[in-house]
Amino acid sequence: MMVVRTVADLRAALRDRRGGSVGFVPTMGALHEGHVSLLRAARAENGTLVLSIFVNPTQFDEQSDLAAYPRTEEADLGIADDAGVDVVFAPGGDEVYPAGFSTMVSVTGPVAETLEGAQRGRAHFDGVATVVTKLLLSVLPDAAYFGAKDAQQVAVIRRLVADLSIPVRVVVCPTSRDDDGLARSSRNARLTPEERSRALAIPRALSAVTDAAAAGVTDTEALRADAAAVLSDAGVEPEYLALVDPVSFEPVAARRGPVLVAIAARVGRTRLIDNVVLEPVREPFGTPYEGGA
Ligand code: PAF
Predict the structure, then answer these.
(1) Ligand 1 atom nearest residue 128's Cα
(2) For the CA of 150, the nearest atom of ligand 1
(3) CA 205 from centroid of its chain's CA atoms
């Protein structure tokens, strides 16, 4: 496994690669089992596997969050090696944002301006869009792998990849969860045991919506109320609890196509996000008959 710090060295390493397609997993480090599941998926599908580790300052809305973000490069490199990574791109701040840097990539509309975009401010997705564009253009992978937990980030990235005609396949891998159901996140390490048990109301709320949807509830206000009740019983106040179109992030009133149920909440000092996608409602006619003898 090679570790490179500059775009020039990255390109040189990829020129000499062993062939086949290039799979890319961009991260901010502090690797956990969730990242490993992305690396496994990318490893299985590509001849060369590239991982980036860069804590991107432009996407943090709170300086304290940036300062507290875990930096664990030595452990990350061990995990990367075990996962079969070929090249780790771990640039310093000046390599990504050199003196005079003055270009930002900004996705507009509800996909970037609602939910996370509204809570964290416009700058958050501008920071994500800019660094992901830079990373994609530096690595030029065939496929880039992202986790479904960051559903809005995925939608923003899909938008910019389409709009800027970046020749990469965006692969979305299922949210990786701990045994208790909590979505894996580098931030979970900050939860006290009491906070962690309260945080479990988030996956419980999502399960309640999934169950209600499976039982035939189509009114999104009713589904929202089910999830809100679970959060409220646990004393978790959501920053948002929204049912939206998973591509445009426009609100949806009644389920027909797929619906993304997205939750953000602070538990103690830790901000957590999670989501689930409700499958489209099956039409009563024209679907295969599933019952009967
Ligand atoms: O999801 C992340 O870890 C980051 O937002 C990303 C995509 C690596 C950009 O900094």
Answers:
(1) 9
(2) 1
(3) 19
The sign one gets for the Cα dihedral 220, 226, 229, 234 is negative
Sign of the Cα pseudo-torsion (277, 148, 274, 108, in order): negative
Residues 10 and 99 in one domain: yes
The string of pLDDT tens digits covering residues 140-159 is 999 999 999 999 999 999 99
Using the predicted structure, report yes or no on whether residue 285 has a pLDDT greater than 70.
no
Residues 39 and 138 in one domain: yes
Residue 135 shares a structural domain with residue 226: no
Measured over all CA atoms, what is the biggest interatomic distance in the chain, rounded to whole angstroms?
72
Using CA atoms, how far apart are residues 58 and 68, in angstroms rounded to an integer?
15
Residue 293 has pLDDT above 50, yes or no: no
Summarize the confidence of residues 246-270 as an average pLDDT: 95
The binding-site residues of ligand 1, defined as CB within 6 angstroms of any ligand atom, are 26-28, 56, 59, 128, 131-132, 150, 153
Residue 267 sits in a domain whose CATH number is: 3.30.1300.10
Taking only the tens place, the pLDDT of each residue in 57-67 is 999 988 998 99
The answer to whether residue 35 is catalytic is yes
Lookup: tokens for 94: 């000046």
